[in-house]
Structures are given as C-alpha cells and as structure tokens.
Amino acid sequence: MTASDQAALTAALVEVERHVGRSGWDQPARLFALVPTSELILAEPGLAEHLSHGLPDGFTSIEQEEFHAGADLGETLAQIAWPETVAGCVLALERVFVPPEVEAELPNDPVQAATLVASHPQRLDLRVVVGATRAGGSHGVARIRGTEELVGGADLVPSLAWALSRTLD
C-alpha cells in the first residue's frame, strides 16, 4: 500500500469516526463501504460539489444501513462479500473494557459478566473504527468516551482488520 493510499484510508476512518460520533455513544456496530472518490464522481457527477472537501485521491464512505452485527460479529463478517467497485470497508463499533484484575474475577455467566462490566466504576468505553482495503492496507482509530483525543495505528485491532480484509476477497 502506498503512502497516499494509507493517508486516504486514515482520513476516511477519521471521517467515519466523526460521523458516527455525531450520533453519540451506545450505538450498534456500523459498516461502511469505501469507494474511490474520483470514481464516484465519474459515476455520479452531481455529487462532485458535496465530495470536494476530501482528498482528491481519497475514499468516500457509504454506510450499509441494513448491516446488523448479530450475535457473532466474526460469523456476520464472514458472510459479507463486496462488489469490485468497493475498494475497502470500515467497521465502527463500541466496546467496554475493565482492568485485567477485574476481568480475571468476572463470572462465567455472560449475562452476569456483562452486567458487572457495564456498572463497574473502572470501565472504559471505547469506540473503534477499523478499515481495510483491497490494496492490502489496514488501519484503525479509537476514541475513549469523554475524551477528544483520537488515537490510531496500523495494528490497532489486527484481528478485526483481518476479518474486514477477508470480506474484500
């Protein structure tokens, strides 16, 4: 993946995180297709004025509103396939974490464990936005609830990046 492709993917992830963030927290997982902005403008010239704010060789994200993560996100992603016109995809999701010492003491019952984590005073709410492209690139950004800082990296959530890349095969 070229440096400009990596920059385009990172910019798309930041835009998706801001878009999702406008709706607040406690949202379900949301899936987006990434299409090259230049190709979208060629196919839909009327969109040019609305898409001119991004990178000229960047991506435009298109939310897949019918997406539902289901009980097993991995299984759901394994059933997705994109047409060739889609250059990449992005998944935004929220997770709650507790410190390792709390995690070690969680009950085996998943409902009881979820209840304990949701109400724990040391819980950490995190929104993760991960993307992958057909060119082989992946990146992720994350925001902790209550902060303005957005952190990111190519290996932020490698298993999710891998699962997303498989949807592009």
Task: Kindly describe this structure.
The chain has helices at 3-21, 37-43, 48-51, 73-78, 100-103, 110-119, 158-166; strands spanning 30-36, 59-63, 88-97, 124-133, 138-144, 150-153. The chain is α+β, with helices and mostly antiparallel strands. It has one domain. A 6-stranded antiparallel beta sheet has the order 2-1-3-4-5-6. Strand 5 and strand 6 form a beta hairpin. The radius of gyration is 17 Å and the shape is elongated. The protein starts with a helix and ends with a helix.
Main attributes?
6 strands, elongated, single chain, about 25% strand, alpha+beta, about 170 residues, 7 helices
| Secondary-structure class | alpha+beta
Biggest sheet character:
6 strands, antiparallel
Q: Roughly how much helix do the residues carry, as a percent range? A: 25-40%
Number of helices: 7
As residue ranges, the low-confidence spans are: none
Average of the residue pLDDT scores: 89
Strand proportion, as a percent range, falls in 25-35%
Rg computed from alpha carbons, rounded to a whole number of angstroms: 17 Å
Query: Roughly how many Å apart are the termini?
Result: 16 Å
Strand order of the largest sheet: 2-1-3-4-5-6
Name the shape in a single word: elongated
Number of strands: 6
Overall number of structural domains: 1
Quaternary organisation of the protein chains? single chain
Order of helices and strands: HEHHEHEHHEEEH
